[in-house]
Design brief:
It contains eleven helices and eight strands. The strands form two sheets. A six-stranded mixed β-sheet has the order 1-2-3-4-6-8, with helices on both faces. A two-stranded parallel ribbon has the order 5-7. It is globular, with a radius of gyration of 17 Å. A hairpin with a 2-residue loop joins strand 1 and strand 2. Helices cover 47% and strands 14% of the residues. Bound molecules: coenzyme A.
Length: 246
């Protein structure tokens, strides 16, 4: 249990909410552990048909907690981060994300594992890994290329510039742009509508579309190996310290 991750089930929807507002919902080790536990619960609970990820209004997630990156073993195999990334690949129930404000690092790469994504027009996506002296994670080196093509994926992953909801929609990273004041209720409405559909059919459909789990696990392991090496470099450590001391 963590006060930074809240969850409850209603009408077949498992609401999984990030709740660390003072740090812009940056994910720390405690939150990764809590997310894994919550997802295990959601997968096992027969009353849950759909998983809905939410951040806060005007902040989905500012990525990994950069202070945790100063721990060189933060993303080692078997770490809470690694456990969550592998778990995202294996979730059988449909996952939806409701996104507003910053969606940085894992705030964007998490979306690549979701089946439906609704974002506001003030959402700011970014994959700043290279600028932080690290590299792509969460299977994004594979998933992004697969979803949006090699050259566009290279642009987003190598330059790491922020991009807006229009770009995310054009690329097919999100389904719809929804007004800020409605996005939350809209995503819930969509999740509840899906939760009413025949569950076995939904599960079968998702599993038929997810045929590359084995490859994705291998990609995540390869990313983790590179990422952990890069975390140990003086260049990356200096970048993290600059952010934390700003
Ligand atoms: N890790 C650790 N702390 C973070 C964080 C992160 N990823 N993102 C934000 N925070 C903290 C800030 O240090 C600040 O803490 P403080 O109040 O103790 O100084 C607090 O959250 C608020 O952030 P701040 O930068 O003041 O808010 P902002 O509205 O000006 O900017 C962001 C919001 C998300 C654009 C900005 O915080 C940011 O760029 N964060 C880092 C994103 C990132 O690179 N993530 C890593 C991806 S791998």
């Amino acid at each position: 249990m963590s006060s930074f991750v809240k969850f409850y089930e209603e009408k077949g929807v498992f609401h999984l909410e990030l709740h660390r507002k003072d740090k812009k919902n940056a994910l720390n080790t405690e939150m990764y552990t809590a997310l894994v536990e919550a997802l295990i619960h959601a997968e096992q609970d027969p009353t849950v048909h759909i998983i809905l990820f939410k951040g806060g209004n005007n902040c989905f997630c500012a990525g990994n907690d950069i202070a945790d990156f100063l721990n060189e073993d933060a993303i080692a195999p078997g770490s809470p981060i690694s456990n969550l990334l592998h778990m995202l690949v294996d979730i059988k129930k449909p996952m939806i994300a409701a996104v507003s404000g910053p969606a940085i690092g894992i705030g964007t790469t998490l979306l690549l594992h979701c089946d439906l994504v609704y974002a506001t027009n003030n959402t700011v996506f970014s994959l700043p890994f290279v600028n932080l002296g690290v590299c792509a994670e969460a299977g994004s080196s594979y998933l992004l290329r697969q979803q949006i093509g090699h050259v566009k994926a290279s642009e987003l992953l190598m330059f790491g510039d922020a991009f807006d909801s229009d770009t995310a929609l054009d690329c097919g990273i999100i389904n719809e742009i929804v007004p800020e004041e409605e996005y939350w209720s809209y995503a819930i409405e969509k999740a509840e509508a899906l939760a009413k559909k025949p569950q076995q059919s939904l599960l079968a459909t998702k599993s038929l579309m997810k045929t590359e789990q084995e490859q994705l696990h291998a990609v995540i392991d390869a990313e983790i190996a590179q990422f952990s090496k890069l975390l140990k470099t003086e260049e990356a450590k200096a970048i993290f310290k600059r952010f934390l001391n700003k």
